[in-house]
Design brief:
single chain; alpha+beta; eight-stranded antiparallel beta sheet; six-stranded antiparallel beta sheet; 16 strands
């Protein structure tokens, strides 16, 4: 069991003034038997009220609106977490964990990687991750948020999001329910992505990028069918500006 302080900052910059900016921020980690949260804070600049709601996957969402003109928006979330890790006991697996999506569709190449895998769900996931690494290298900039699992495999390169999508495609092809997870690991940079599979008693995590089961160093923030369900920010505004985004995520042990 380990205790961490986390801090997430998202800066949106616009090439010209915008207004009537409505946005959603998904960065309010839920507490459960594997992670306890306290001291959670959310704020924005320019200032907006940020009431919390929940999406279809039970992720907490803060909804904000800025009516006045602005060319920059800063969103920040911070708090502390005590992480136990291990299995998250769940009696019934949500049906959506079995559903493929355009980002996690298994084509012929992915189905070939899914052949003759171990029957045990965790062993299956770890062996599938090892096979993925035989064909795909970790490389920043090779893919983007629209890249599917099949496309990443063909490219032979990707980042944590792509490794998670490929593992999801294989597990679901093997009829093993699984979900995408966006969250934090110790260090500074961006968010991380991994997979949680349902083993009949609950969800257990596998990090296909690092070829290992997850542990008490993984803070779960959002879950869903794929990365689109876990997007931390969504928004719309009035104006013709181009948008750029800067992310800084940090989780340090205390």
């Amino acid at each position: 069991m380990r205790r961490f302080r986390y801090d997430y900052s998202l800066t949106l910059r616009f090439s010209a003034p915008i207004c009537r900016h409505s946005f959603l921020l998904r960065f309010w980690p839920n507490g459960d038997e594997t992670q306890q949260l306290w001291g959670r804070e959310l704020w924005s600049a320019p200032k907006s009220t940020l009431p919390l709601t929940a999406d279809a996957f039970s992720n907490a969402c803060a909804c904000g609106h800025i009516e006045a003109e602005h060319q920059q928006l800063i969103l920040r979330a911070r708090g502390e977490a005590l992480i136990r890790g291990g299995r998250l006991d769940v009696a019934d697996c949500p049906a959506w964990c079995k559903h493929t999506t355009p980002l996690t569709h298994a084509d012929g190449a992915l189905l070939s990687l899914a052949r003759d895998l171990p029957a045990d769900p965790m062993d299956c996931a770890l062996e599938a991750s090892r096979r993925i690494h035989e064909h795909v290298e970790y490389r920043r900039g090779a893919t983007d948020e629209r890249t599917s699992a099949a496309e990443a495999l063909r490219l032979g390169a990707g980042v944590c999001q792509d490794f998670a999508h490929m593992l999801l495609a294989i597990l679901r092809a093997r009829n093993i329910p699984a979900r995408y997870v966006a969250g934090l690991i110790p260090g500074e940079g961006e968010t991380h992505a991994w997979v949680e599979l349902y083993d009949g008693a609950g969800f257990v995590g596998v990090d296909p990028t690092q070829l290992r089961p997850t542990d008490d160093g993984y803070l779960r923030v959002n879950v869903g069918r794929d990365s689109r369900d876990c997007a931390i920010n969504r928004g719309m505004f009035t104006g013709t500006a181009q948008q750029t985004m800067e992310v800084c995520a940090r989780m340090v042990e205390i």
